[in-house]
Every structure is written in structure tokens, then in C-alpha cells.
Amino acid sequence: MSSRIEQLIDEIEEYIEGCKPKFMSSTEIVVNKDEIDELLRELRMKTPDEIKRYQKIISNKEAILNDAREKAEALINEATVHTNELINEHEIMQQAYAQANEVVTMASKQAQEILDNATIEANNVRAAAMQYMDDMLAHLENIIVSSTQTATANYDRLIGSLNQYKDVIQSNRSELHPVDDDLDAYATAEAEDSGNLDMM
Question: Please, are residues 141 and 59 in contact by the beta-carbon 8 Å criterion?
């Protein structure tokens, strides 16, 4: 059964796949900001819950180990009671010691096996949970990196276009200046001619 985080990631991927391509572009798409924001908001809200759920799974390791310890102690206690019963029977004292040691040895061995198996099982659960979360976070990181790169590329293209417009505007303005220079030269010549007439 997939988690809500997996479902949300699938929904984001399906949404991106279903977006219309940008006009005259094979790599850019038109995204509805409200829809993608809603999906990302729910993803942010669900991620802590998923992490808590896997932390709870990991914490079950202690419960498994405690259960194993209890079973081991019960076996040892049973073996001890059985040993005491055998020892109390004087006629079979030597046999009681031998059997008691054998029972204790078997009980200790079984208890160790239970503890070992419980530890292995708990570690496997913990490793699987951590790997699963790491895979999901890596996938989410890839989506964010891809989105960031696309946004950066769009910003760079916008700046390039604005710089081109600025160059065209500056060029157009510079073409206007020669007209202003001719008017200034004509005004200067008029003033000089007027001064010469006054001197005459």
C-alpha cells in the first residue's frame, strides 16, 4: 500500500506531464500556480506524518527486543525451577546436575537465538524504513532541482531579452543626437552673423 507522499509525488508528476507546452517551446510548460502550490503544500504537510510513522516502526525494535528478553527469561526461569526439582531428589543427584546443565545450556542457546533474530528483524525494519524515506526525499530533491534550473533558465532569458531591448533603445537615442547637434551649430552661426552686423 503506497503512502500519501508517494501518491502526491505521482500526482505532481502526472500534473506536470499533463501541462500544456509553452508556445514555440519543446522544453517549457505552462503551469497553474494555484494547483501546483496546493499539491506542494499538501506534500509539505504530509511529510512529517510519514516520518513519524517510520520512526514509530523503528521504535518497535525496542518492543521486539523486550519481548525476546521476556521469553528468554521465562525459559531460564523454567530451566532453573526444573533444575531445583531435580537437585532436590537425592537419589538422582548426579543425573539432576547433568540434566540441569543441559536444560540451562539449551535455554540460554534458545534465548540467544531469539535475541539475535529479534535484533536482525528490528535492524531490517529500520534499514528498510530509512531507505524508503531516503528514496522519497531524493526523488523530491530531484523535482526541486529540476524546477529551480528551469526557473533560473527562464530568468536568464528574460534578462537577456531586456538587455537587447536596452541596446536598441540606446541606439535609437544616439541616432537622435546628431539632429540636436545640427540645431546647436545653426543657432551658433546665427548669433555670430548677428554680431557681425552690429559691428558694421
Answer: no
* Residue with cell string 541616432: 175
* Helical packing angle, 33-88 and 4-18, nearest 10°: 160
* Radius of gyration for the chain, computed over Cα atoms and rounded to the nearest angstrom: 42
- Domain spans of the chain, in order of start: 4-199
The string of pLDDT tens digits covering residues 10-48 is 888 888 888 888 888 777 888 888 888 888 888 788 777
CA-wise closest residue to 132 among 42, 57, 45: 57
Task: With residue 192 as reference, give the H or E element that holds it.
Answer: helix 93-199
Burial 117-144 (b: 16+ CB within 10 A, else e): ebeeebeebbeebeebbeebeeebeeee
Amino acid at 55: Q
Instruction: Name 53's Cβ contacts closer than 8 Å, sequence gap at least 6.
Output: 3
Decide if 5 contacts 43 (C-beta within 8 A): yes
Dihedral, 141, 142, 143, 148 alpha carbons, nearest 10: 90
Phi, psi of 26 (to 5 degrees): -105, -5
Q: How many other CB atoms are there within 10 angstroms of residue 177's CB atom?
A: 9
Residue 140 · residue 132 · CB < 8 Å: no
State how far the Cα of 148 lies from the Cα of 166, in Å rounded to an integer: 27
Q: What is the pTM of this model?
A: 0.38
